[in-house]
Design brief:
Layout: E1 19-25, E2 30-33, H1 35-41, H2 45-48, H3 63-74, E3 79-86, E4 92-103, E5 109-118, H4 121-141, H5 146-160, H6 165-171
Antiparallel strand pairs: 1-2, 1-5, 3-4, 4-5
């Protein structure tokens, strides 16, 4: 079970050459975490292996974004996203994430592979406002309907800009 962590207002800044790598099983339980992941998130390997990847989910992240991410990767496509994560001590860090399906030698999906790098600051500023709007929609919708309500709003916003999520994320840079 995920322990309650109080978010701080302290940001951890990744270096340009930092690449956070993790693998999960098909249910999102961590099966591999590289040393950079452990260092930035503040968890040991034993604290990460076998637990849900959402151990690092920051409360500022709308559930609708994760609903979209799961829809994309479960369809076999890769997903790019800006994600605000939370370290064990409550500090936060922004990443530009790429999540893709991990296949065995027979091309059967066995889990997911994620590589995260330093997020572009201009992209963070743009996406932060969108995420704040999505969180407000989620608060108004209530727990049960929150992910769908904010995701539907996001899709409408993108449609009005004549784009889709992946194209929009790529325009923000990385």
């Amino acid at each position: 079970m995920k322990q309650a962590i109080n978010p701080t207002d302290r940001e951890i800044f990744m270096d340009e050459n930092d690449f956070i790598v993790s693998k999960t099983d098909l249910k999102g339980r961590i099966t591999y975490a590289n040393r950079i992941f452990m260092r930035i998130a503040g968890y040991s390997e034993s604290e990460l292996l076998g637990v849900q990847h959402n151990i690092i989910r920051h409360p500022d992240m709308p559930r609708g974004v994760f609903r979209l991410l799961w829809q994309v990767i479960e369809s076999g496509e890769e997903c790019f996203a800006y994600v605000k994560n939370m370290a064990k001590n409550g500090d936060f860090y922004w990443v530009y994430a790429n999540v893709t399906v991990d296949y065995d030698s027979n091309l059967n999906p066995v889990g997911y592979f994620s590589v995260r790098r330093k997020a572009n600051r201009e992209g963070v500023e743009t996406i932060s406002q969108i995420y704040r709007d999505m969180l407000e929609i989620e608060r108004q919708a209530g727990v049960r309907d929150a992910p769908d309500a904010s995701l539907n709003w996001l899709m409408e916003q993108l449609k009005s800009r004549s784009t889709n999520y992946q194209e929009f994320i790529h325009t923000l840079g990385h």
